[in-house]
Target: FAD:protein FMN transferase
Amino acid sequence: MKYLRRYSFTLAFLALFFAWVWLRPDSPAQVYQLDGETMGTRYSILVTSFPDDISDNELASGIEQRLYRIDRELMSTYAPESELSRFNRSAVGPWVEVSAELAEVVAQAQEISDLTDGYFDVTVGPLVDRWGFGPVQEMAGSPRIPTDAEITQLQAQVGYHQLEVSRDPPQLRKLADVRVDLSGIAKGFGADVIADYLDAVGLDSYFIEIGGELRVRGIKPDGSSWVPAIETPGQGAPQVHDIIVVDGQPLAIAGSGDYRNFFEQDGVRFSHEIDPFTGRPVTHDLAAVYIITDTAATADALATAFMVMGTERAFALSEQLNLAAYFINKRRAGEGFDSSHTSHFTRYLPDDDSTSAGNNREN
Model:
């Protein structure tokens, strides 16, 4: 879950950054859909109606303004004048005034870091960059795989404990020369912001998806529920591995996987999921993980952390925290995948799927 796309900051780009087109349904029983781009990925928003006191264009504009602010103005590591980019260039030591939104996201990120014993770390960017997965392609012309000495040097620049945050007043400061990358939580936060906006204008049924992070609420006009899908890990066209039963309840769902962003060298596959403790891509067999919780920001960050932790450790922590978590693992011998889930995920699976916690399914 990274900001994978580089953007050119031209007037033409800014004018076309959001392609706002409501796809109007042919009948009242269908839904309205809004698609576009943000945070280096795609988003899709579906609603069943428009509030009486707001037009479709006004609703689209409200969404546009919020997504643009979260991405380009506040949290992008690609935009040199975003608030986060300016903080990353700031000196070590002094408190830096920031927006309430940026302070809130960093505070949530730090809480998830504590909860996962540092497996979620927003300062891991230098390692991500050196392995060639971030906004900065470190040491151009060097071998793609860093040396042990390089990794050790870069690890000295990583550590979420070297970052402090204040919600009131909203401020950040570095205790060492760290660089913050919020790509493991920002898309989830964006989905939460849009859900709060739709709630505020009176919509009680919607499906929000930003780069795979979801906020879902209500039912469709025909009385059926929204049906989020769990994707089978793979490089081809997306395939449904399982479905999530929503039944109209408000949910946040996020997933993370290692099957879309990786490189291979000398027959070895290197994932974009970097372990901050080793400084290297993870080597376990966890292919994807999905989390259901109250906010997409929390689910987003936990899914990222769990992909680094691996199934055994993440499963145990999920059960300890009463989390709904779903894991897809690569088989060690042969092709295909096995899946398992925590006890709290059972209620979100179809009846023929929800046998018991830790169940295994073959695909």
Observations:
- The chain has a mean pLDDT of 85.
